[in-house]
Amino acid sequence: MGFAQDRSLAQVPLWRVIKNNTYSPAATMTKPKHQNVTGMPDVLPRDRRFFEIVEKACFKIASYYGYARTETPVLEYLELFEKGTGLTSDIVEKQMYTLRTQGGDMLALRPELTPSLVRAYIQHGMVSWPQPVKLAEFGPVFRHERPQSGRFREFRQFEIDAIGDKDAALDVQVISILCNIFHALGIRDASIQINSIGCSRCKPNYRRVVRDYYRGRERSLCKDCRKRKKVNILRLLDCKDEKCERLKMGAPETVDHLCTECHNHLKEVLEILDALSLPYILDARLVRGLDYYTKTVFEIFSTKKVEEGERAVALAGGGRFDDLVKLFGGEATPAVGGSLGVERVVARLRKLGIKASMEKKQRVFLVHLGDLAKKRSMKLLEEFRSAGISVREAVGQSSIRGQMSFADKLGVDYALILGHQEVAEDTIIIRDMKGGSQEVIPVHKVIKELKKRLGR
Fold first, then answer.
1. 317 burial class (0-12, 13-18, 19+ CB within 10 angstroms)?
2. pTM
3. Residue 430: which residues within 8 A CB-CB, separation 6 or more?
């Protein structure tokens, strides 16, 4: 007998069927033996949607400006980051995950994306491509630091780099793309902080005046900055320690010590930002904690205070790295780029109350009764896929109640019911899950009927 005759079961609300079989996993489970590594969280299906919409927005906007998606490996030779990021940077000194292979090679899990993209530019001869070469990448990076709000040991970055052109307009384009991404996601309070840290000609003089400023003030520095003062004086300006931040407010400003070329470059960047009506703050003491930056450096913050005492959240940053290609053995090649922290952006979306758009609701569920019907339903699923109709199922379930319970939880509009009798007669039942009515139709007409009912 087909399922159509079992009306008493089909018309019982599913919550009544399962009400007396309530099971609470939380009440019986003990703490699992194996858990994720601290600072390297799982991304569950309910959270994944946020990451997907961020990724989609990033590439949709970046691709409009000609940035082509690229993928580099998560493992690189250690030297790449020691040389590029800088031996005295926190990333290299404290945060990298390194390993030695059986063959003796020293490798590192990438702590950022820029050195890998520049290495790929040189290795694959992109210098012969039309310049600038515009690259975009989205992927995991790894840093061994104390996990806290907004900081993880494994997290995702999105980066865009334009390699092969020194024009100030590209600096602004990178900034504009990142701001456009935030705007598309619903973050409308983005604020740009920007500065120039000079080039190889004017940086040495600025380092000297900063060193003179901090001479005699060592006791007012945090422990880390006392060490940094000996190896890279500019990193004192990037410290977020409260007493170091107070002290740096009196430090010399970079804009007073730029060469003519760097001064004119910064002036042009600011003029283009004005022309695009992009709000910015010129922070003349802004530096970034990576050694390869030259000229323009910037950070983008979300400034709206959601909670009392909340600080502005840095969502993105970047700048020029005109010396990095040459440092890696290529020809002198100007470049500019920027990246955003995906987890930070997702956290900000949640804090601002911005919801991820829900996935398209499942509207059809295929129910089978018996082995013969299961085999026929598997073939039907492929026919639905070819026709572009999304249909959910529970082929591992043999119980009608279990399958209908699943369909009820999904809130589908229609259940397609296939039992032994329906297979023998080449028919299928379409049940309206809301109204309770059902109809038997020839199975070869089911796709056409579904399209009509779904308004396709």
1. buried
2. 0.82
3. 414, 415, 416, 417, 438, 439, 441, 446, 449, 450, 453
